[in-house]
């Protein structure tokens, strides 16, 4: 969180929050990392991504610290995994009912509601079926889409572009770290040869 403060982030999402206590600890940590005058400009959200978290959600909403929480993100891939389902089940009716129920409760506390996990064009009917005003945004791994504007007729094209951006980002990441990992190859060979020679001159054996 200190690093997030340095680079000026606008949103922080805590993963795997499964109890009112975990929620309280996250919000307390945010208080330590960000002065009060800065916290008003930062959205603090939690990932609700397991059936255990869903069952504990009522207790989370009763927490004294709930007023400091800005929103929730439903992580559908991990949610399906916790239900014994597969990634291919993220859009099924059972998952939809869980998300709808959680968002209904979240809105009683004026929390922003987002959906992540396996977002693709195939997710759009799922999002559009949620009651009006329930979904504030949906997100791929790197791109956030604001609703309701991102639920329009061209939403599938936006998601396709997001996939393209993420593909380029991953390729850039791969090339960058690959370059770093190989930049000292020649020096390693030179030092290893020198070290081997010195060890052998001292009567030792370099394996």
List the helices and strands and how they pair.
Blueprint (H helix, E strand, L loop, with lengths): L1 H6 L3 E4 L5 H14 L2 H4 L3 E6 L2 H5 L1 H5 L9 E5 H7 L10 H15 L4 E5 L7 H6 L7 E3 L4 E3 L8 H28 L2 H17 L6
Parallel strand pairs: 1-2, 2-3, 3-4, 4-5
Antiparallel strand pairs: 5-6
How would you portray this structure in words?
Strands 1-2-3-4-5-6 form a six-stranded mixed sheet. It is α/β, with parallel strands linked by helices. Strand 5 (137-139) and strand 6 (144-146) form a beta hairpin. The protein has helices at residues 2-7, 20-33, 36-39, 51-55, 57-61, 76-82, 93-107, 124-129, 155-182, 185-201, and strands at 11-14, 43-48, 71-75, 112-116, 137-139, 144-146. The protein has two domains: 2-152, Phosphoenolpyruvate-binding domains (TIM Barrel, Alpha-Beta Barrel), CATH 3.20.20; 153-207. The mean pLDDT is 94.
């Amino acid at each position: 969180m200190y690093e997030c403060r340095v680079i000026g982030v606008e949103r922080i999402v805590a993963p795997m929050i499964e109890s009112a206590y975990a929620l309280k600890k996250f919000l307390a940590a945010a208080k330590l990392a960000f002065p009060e005058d800065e916290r008003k400009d930062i959205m603090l959200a939690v990932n609700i991504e397991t059936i255990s978290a869903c069952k504990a959600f009522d207790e989370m909403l009763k927490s004294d610290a709930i007023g400091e929480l800005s929103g929730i993100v439903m992580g559908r891939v991990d949610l399906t995994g916790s239900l014994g389902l597969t990634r291919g089940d993220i859009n099924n009716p059972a998952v939809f009912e869980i998300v709808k129920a959680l968002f209904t409760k979240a809105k009683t506390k004026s929390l922003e509601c987002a959906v992540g996990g396996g977002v693709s064009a195939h997710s759009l009917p799922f999002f559009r079926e949620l009651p009006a005003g329930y979904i504030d945004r949906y997100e791929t791994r790197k791109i956030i889409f604001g609703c309701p504007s991102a639920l329009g007729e061209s939403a599938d094209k936006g998601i396709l572009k997001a996939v393209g951006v993420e593909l380029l980002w991953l390729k850039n990441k791969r090339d960058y770290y690959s370059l770093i990992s190989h930049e000292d190859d020649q020096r390693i060979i030179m030092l290893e040869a020198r070290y081997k020679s010195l060890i052998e001159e001292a009567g030792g054996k370099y394996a």
